[in-house]
Design goal:
- The structure is a homodimer.
- By secondary structure, chain A is of the alpha/beta class.
- The first copy, chain A, has three domains: about 5-130, 3-Layer(aba) Sandwich (Rossmann fold), CATH 3.40.50; about 135-295, Dihydrodipicolinate Reductase, domain 2 (2-Layer Sandwich), CATH 3.30.360; about 335-425, Alpha-Beta Plaits.
- Helices cover about 30% and strands about 30% of the residues of chain A.
- Chain A contains 13 helices and 18 strands.
- In chain A, the strands form two sheets. In chain A, strands 7, 8, 9, 10, 11, 12, 13, 14, 15, 16, 17 and 18 form a twelve-stranded mixed β-sheet that branches. A six-stranded parallel β-sheet of chain A has the order 3-2-1-4-5-6.
- In chain A, strand 11 and strand 12 (about 290-295) form a beta hairpin.
- Chain A is elongated.
- At the A-B interface, helix 1, helix 5, strand 12 and helix 11 of A face helix 1, helix 5, strand 12 and helix 11 of B.
C-alpha cells in the first residue's frame, strides 16, 4: 500500500511549534507521509532542509484564510480571539480538520467550535491543550467512554507546581523561586496567567465539558491562584502531613457540577501529592475503572508537541471518531463554593497574650465549626510581637467558615488578615 | 446518521466476560449499537434481558469455528492453546476483527497473530491483556508513536502487589497474606502463575514487542517470583528507604534488549514505589516525552472489561489503524542478566561471632564489590544462634556478585543460604 499523504498548515512557531518541527524531522512512518504545505510565523526564522521544500511561508496567520492547500490546520498560536480564532473557524468551515493546543479558544468556544466541526464533518482535536505530555483527552474520549466519570482532579499547571515544590524543597520564598523559574524558562516573563490560576481554569473547563458532556462556562469556575502562598504555610502543611498543590477539580453529583481551581492541602500519601516539580498529574474517578492516575510533563516543547503529532497521525489514520458525536449537551447546575462541605487550614497572626485561643474558639462555636488540630509557633525573637497559630478544622460549610473568619479578623488581638486554605481528602 | 450496528461474539464468560456484560448493559451510544450475536460459555448461566434476545448460545467455544454472524470476536477465555487459539486464528482468517484479553496467546504468538491479522486486513486489539484499567497499549501505539521509547518498567500483577503491600502494612508473612488474598478473590486457588512471575512475563513481553517493534520470545525473559520474599526483607528495605516490588523491565540500549521480571528494591520516593495494593503502575521513558507514568486497577472484572469495550468501540468507530502496520521487525540481541551492572541487597544469616563481617568483606574484595551500607539485627532471644546481617552494595557486575555469593554461602559461619535482591535506581 503506498503511504497516505497528509498536508498540514502550521500556524505559530513558538515553543510548541518548534517542538513539532523537531518531532517531524525524526518521525518516519511507512503508512503516513506528513507534508508541511504552509507555515505562518510572525518571527522571521530560517526553515531549512527537505521538509520545507514545498512549504509556503506567511508572516501573518491571517493569510491562511486565503490558503486551502492543506488537510489539517495545526493552530499553535494561542489566545481566544484575533487570527487564531479566525483561522480555526475558517478552516473548519472550509472542511479542513483542526489540531490545536489552544486551551483558551477551545474552553471558551467549546460549543461553537464543536458545532462547526460536526456541521462540516471535520475532526477537531485538542490533546495538547490540556497537560501536554499526558493523553488525558484520549483517555476520557476513547478509553473511558463506557464509564460514567464522577470526578477529575489534578495538577494542570507545571509552573505553579514547580514553584510550590521548590519553595518547600529549597526553603525559599515565592518571589525568589518565581524569578528562578523565569530564568529557567519554566515561567513566562508575565507569569500572571499561570500564577493566578487562569491557565488551570481553561484546562479544567475542557476536561469538565468533555467528561460530563456539557457546555461549561469558564466564568462559572471559581479560582484562586498561588500568589499568596507563603513558605510558612508549606512548612506547617508538611508538619501536619500535607502538601499544598494548585488543583483543578471538576465533579458531577447528580445534576450538580462542582468546578473550582484553588491551592489546597492534600495528604502526602495521596497519589496527586506525589506529583512534584514541572510534572502534571490527573486523577480520574469513574464508576467501573474506579481510580486512574496519569502523570507526565505537563508543558514543555516536546511533550506538548507529542500530543499535537499524535492528533495529526490520528486524523491521518482516521483513528478518530469517523462519526462525530451528536451534539446534545447535558444541562447541569453549578454548585456554589460557599456551600462546600469540607475542612480548612487556618493561619492566624495574633498578639502573644492569653485569651487568643478562646477568642477564636468562641467564634468557631458560634458558626458550628470544630477544631481538629492546633499548632502554635514560638516567636522568632523577643522583638517580634506576633504569635502564629495554625488550626485545622473538621468538616464545615464554607459559608460559615467565611463568616467566622470575617468576625475573627476584626478581633483586637488579630494582627494580620487570617490565611485560609481548603483541605481536600483525596486518597 | 443512523447508528452503526456491530455484532460481537463473546467467548468465555468468566471474571472479565461478566464485567463486559455489566458494562454493555449500561453502555448507551447514539452512534454505535453493539449486538451480542453469540456467547460461548462452558458454565451454564442464565442470560436474561433484551440484550440477549438475538443471541446464540454455545457450550463449547469450538462451535464458533462454524459460526460467522459477527463482526468482532471477543476472546475472553485465556490460555495459549486449544479453543482460544483456534477461534482467534479462525476468526482472523475469516476476515473478522478480534478483541482479546489473552496475554498468554498474544505474547507467545505475537508475530503469527499480527501476520494473520494484517494478511486478512483485520484489526487485532488487546488492550485488556496488559494492566486492565490502564490504556497502556493505546499510549504506546497511538500517543507515543512519534517518540522513541527507551525503557518501560512497571508493576503489572495486582496479586503480587497486594501481597507485598499487605505483608508490610499488616506485619504478616507471605502465606498468611496469600491465604487472605485467595479468600478475597485477589489471588487464584492456584496462584503459581501470578506469584512465580509468569503473568508479568507475558504482559512485559507484549509491551516489549510493541514498544520496540520486534518479535520478543518470552523464553528470553529472565524471571524470579515473589515466593521467597520474607517479611524481614520488606522491613529491612523500609529502614533503608526502599520498597520491594515485583517489576517487569524492558529496555533498549543501542541494539541490546534487557527484559527481566524480578522483585527488587526501589526508592520509596520513586513514582513506581507509590503504587500499592491491587493497583498496577507503568512508567514509560521516551526521547521526547521523557517520563510518563500511568496507574490504575490492573486486574478486576470492570477495569479489564473497560479495556475490552474500549477496543470494541474503537473498531466499531474505526478509530483504530485503518492501515495496518507493515510487519517489518527490528532485530535485537538480548542482554544477559549476568552482565547486569547494578547494586544489591543481601541478607546473611550467620553465627553470632567475631570475624563474620571480615570473612564476607574478603570475598567482596576478591570480586571487586564494595559495600554501601551494613545493618546488623540483634538476636531475637538468647536461644537463637543466628545473627542477621544486611548489606547493600555499590554497583557491580551481577556475575561477580553471584560468584562471591557462591563462595560466601560455603563459609563455615553462614547458617542459611544468603538472600539477594537487586536494587533498581528508578526515580
Amino acid at each position: 500500500m503506498p503511504p497516505r499523504k497528509i498536508k498540514i498548515a502550521i500556524a505559530g512557531v513558538g515553543t510548541v511549534g518548534k517542538g513539532l518541527l523537531d518531532l517531524l524531522k525524526k518521525y518516519e512512518n511507512k503508512e503516513i507521509k506528513i507534508q508541511i504545505s504552509a507555515i505562518a510565523s510572525r518571527k522571521k526564522r530560517k526553515f531549512l532542509g527537505k521538509s520545507f521544500k514545498n512549504t509556503v511561508f506567511f508572516d501573518d496567520a491571517n493569510e491562511l484564510l486565503n490558503f486551502s492547500d492543506y488537510d489539517i490546520l495545526v493552530e499553535l498560536i494561542g489566545g481566544d480571539n484575533g487570527p487564531p480564532k479566525r483561522i480555526v473557524f475558517d478552516a473548519l468551515n472550509k472542511g479542513k480538520h483542526v489540531v490545536t493546543a489552544n486551551k483558551a479558544l477551545v474552553s471558551k468556544f467549546w460549543h461553537e467550535i464543536l458545532e462547526v466541526s460536526v456541521k462540516n464533518n471535520c475532526l477537531l482535536k485538542y490533546e495538547a491543550s490540556v497537560a501536554g505530555g499526558i493523553p488525558i483527552i484520549k483517555v476520557i474520549d476513547e478509553f473511558l467512554l463506557s464509564n460514567r466519570i464522577k470526578k477529575i482532579y489534578g495538577i494542570l499547571n507545571g509552573t505553579c507546581n514547580y514553584i510550590l515544590t521548590n519553595m518547600f524543597s529549597f526553603d525559599k520564598d515565592f518571589r525568589t523561586v518565581l524569578n528562578e523559574a523565569q530564568k529557567l524558562g519554566y515561567a513566562e516573563a508575565d507569569p500572571t496567567f499561570d500564577i493566578d490560576g487562569l491557565d488551570t481554569v481553561h484546562k479544567l473547563s475542557i476536561l469538565s465539558s468533555l467528561a460530563f458532556n456539557f457546555n461549561n462556562d469558564i466564568k462559572n469556575i471559581k479560582l484562586e491562584g498561588i500568589q499568596n502562598i507563603n513558605l510558612l504555610d508549606l512548612k506547617f502543611a508538611d508538619s501536619l502531613g500535607y502538601k499544598i498543590k494548585l488543583l483543578g477539580i471538576t465533579e458531577l453529583k447528580e445534576k450538580e457540577i462542582k468546578n473550582a481551581v484553588y491551592p489546597c492541602l492534600i495528604s502526602k500519601e495521596s497519589f496527586i501529592a506525589k506529583v512534584d516539580g514541572v510534572y502534571n498529574g490527573v486523577v480520574v474517578e469513574s464508576d467501573f475503572c474506579k481510580k486512574s492516575f496519569f502523570v507526565g510533563e505537563g508543558a514543555g516543547s516536546h511533550p506538548t508537541a507529542t500530543s499535537v503529532l499524535s492528533d495529526i497521525i490520528s486524523i491521518a489514520k482516521k483513528q478518530s471518531n469517523e462519526y462525530p458525536k451528536e451534539l446534545k449537551y447535558n444541562k447541569y447546575i453549578y454548585s456554589r463554593l460557599e456551600d462546600r462541605w469540607g475542612s480548612y487550614y487556618l493561619r492566624f497572626t495574633t498578639e502573644d497574650k492569653p485569651g487568643v485561643i478562646s477568642g477564636i474558639a468562641n467564634e468557631f462555636k458560634r458558626f458550628k465549626i470544630s477544631m481538629k488540630s492546633m499548632l502554635q509557633k514560638e516567636r522568632e525573637n523577643s522583638q517580634s510581637k506576633n504569635a502564629t497559630i495554625v488550626i485545622t478544622t473538621h468538616n464545615c460549610v464554607e459559608k460559615n467558615m467565611m463568616q467566622a473568619l470575617r468576625r475573627i479578623n476584626r478581633l483586637s488581638f488579630i494582627n494580620k488578615k487570617t490565611i485560609y486554605l481548603r483541605i481536600e481528602d483525596f486518597k
